[in-house]
Amino acid sequence: TAIHLERNVTFSVTGSNGIINRWHPQWLPSGLESFELEDHNSSLVIPSTGLYLIYAQLCYAATKDNNSYEVRVINQGAASSHSKIIAQCSAGTTILDNDITCYTSVAQILQANDRVYLQQIQKHRHLLMSMGRSFLGIVKLS
Question: What are the E-state strand segments in 62-112?
Fold first, then answer.
């Protein structure tokens, strides 16, 4: 069971809630359990309980500001306000002409119907979303 998500747009600005949305599957092996996308394609619903590798990268447009995001999980049946952080990535630079990427991954035991999503910590950040620059993926390990 695996899925890799991207957004085939050039540029996006995170809103006031910082949740990255409108993901689209770039590949999903056929014949396996399938993931569902919810909440404007911002969160992935876990199809079955198990150990998962979750990986993500966001690419930020040239800025001297610090940029950080969290990988968050909402447990089955819990309200969105009760999500928990399972990983965080922070990146910054002093050179204004460089784009910045921030990659993180984490292995996590997840329950069926848990939801995984990315949330930008700082508001109104400029993300480069073209193919290969920003992505989110999940692979079931066992």
Answer: 67-74, 84-91, 100-110
